[in-house]
């Protein structure tokens, strides 16, 4: 057993690349993946080393819109018109929410207004979807 200098876990020899390995293979893999990510966001979005991490910390490690914290890395969101980096978003907010709203703030404001003040309730009162439809949409949301 040997103690990893990175994660501090006591691990068996087989978790080290060799007898002189000081960092376990799990930590090595993680470091390699982080280095790769750093290079990629640098090349693709012009982020300086450390800027992704600084932004991540500034956003409390959460998606800037839904505040979700997932195991997946947050995506670097940019304005498609001029390429300016806006912030870090989860894949749902970046890929679905903003895409569906076509990056238009007025659409998103209208969507919030719609959910808070549904026109049907105001104009025809409360009508209820059948159990079936209701369950289907609930299942779809789970996926
Ligand atoms: Zn380790
Ligand atoms: Zn999100």
UniProtKB/TrEMBL annotation:
<dbReference type="InterPro" id="IPR004211">
    <property type="entry name" value="Endonuclease_7"/>
</dbReference>
<dbReference type="InterPro" id="IPR044925">
    <property type="entry name" value="His-Me_finger_sf"/>
</dbReference>
<dbReference type="Pfam" id="PF02945">
    <property type="entry name" value="Endonuclease_7"/>
</dbReference>
<dbReference type="InterPro" id="IPR038563">
    <property type="entry name" value="Endonuclease_7_sf"/>
</dbReference>
<protein>
    <recommendedName>
        <fullName>Recombination endonuclease VII</fullName>
    </recommendedName>
</protein>
